[in-house]
């Protein structure tokens, strides 16, 4: 075989090897970026939920309703006057008058028949449905609120579910504690996952690290391209994670418009920033640990890893 043909064949094989190697490295970077993005997405959601915990708590408490039952029949001016008095209370967020006729219609829908036909009279009474401010929606404050409302003229009774109120406050406290634990656990797991992903990515280039070390390259010189490349992957992963969080928030906002009252736009930007910082820090620290493992390794050990 002519010498020129042999060199041409070697050149073609060499090009193919370079193409395969480049494709492998590219696929490894894509896989690493997607893996990091998924972890950052979960972390971002946890941080967002923690930030909006107060908003969720306020939303739930604001939707707890207490009913103020009016004694006897009242004319329109008297109803308006009493409603104004209740609305001025510092613990009241909103107040809505519900006539006994409206209550009767609801009873008919619930029971399937008119209770007035059975009893001979309408058992319902006019009342006000009150939504409290979040700071007052707890068992201790409710006792003060109940006593104050009962002191108003023409107020017959104040009704609310103490068990529901207690359960809401207990569950919200448990959720807050659970989110804190979840955030810590996710942080540890995410670091381990990212470190393993990066370690697998660097594993294929361990002999390159060894070659650079043998020709006299310093540890910082060897470490720099790996760290730089992984930080870029971390930034891209953070952008993907933030887009995923934004898409999820947009979806829920379309399905549940009240969500806008819970999620503060400023908190959302803080979450985006936190995800970006975590993407950089986690990849930086994990890459340094992964590369240092091979920098400390003896040459003969590279063949048995």
Structural write-up:
- This protein has 305 residues and is α+β, with helices and mostly antiparallel strands.
- It is 72% helix and 8% strand.
- It is built from ten helices and four strands.
- A four-stranded antiparallel sheet has the order 2-3-1-4.
- The longest helix is centred in the N-terminal third of the chain and has 49 residues, at 3-51.
Based on the model shown, name its key terms.
305 residues; alpha+beta; Alpha-Beta Plaits; 2 domains; 4-stranded antiparallel sheet; 4 strands; disordered N terminus
Sheet with the most strands? 4 strands, antiparallel
Overall shape:
rod-shaped
The separation of the N and C termini measures 40 Å
Radius of gyration: 33 Å
- Residue stretches low in confidence (pLDDT < 50, at least 5 long) are 3-10
Determine the oligomeric state from the structure: single chain
Structural class by secondary-structure content: alpha+beta
Number of helices: 10
The fraction of residues in strands falls at 5-15%
- Strand order of the biggest β-sheet: 2-3-1-4
Number of domains: 2
SSE topology string: HHEHEHHEHEHHHH
The total of beta strands comes to: 4
Mean pLDDT: 75
Helical fraction = over 70%
Task: Set out the fold topology.
Elements: H1 3-51, H2 53-62, E1 65-70, H3 76-87, E2 92-98, H4 100-111, H5 115-119, E3 127-132, H6 139-150, E4 155-159, H7 162-203, H8 206-214, H9 219-255, H10 265-295
Helix pairs in contact: 1-7, 1-9, 1-10, 2-7, 7-10, 9-10
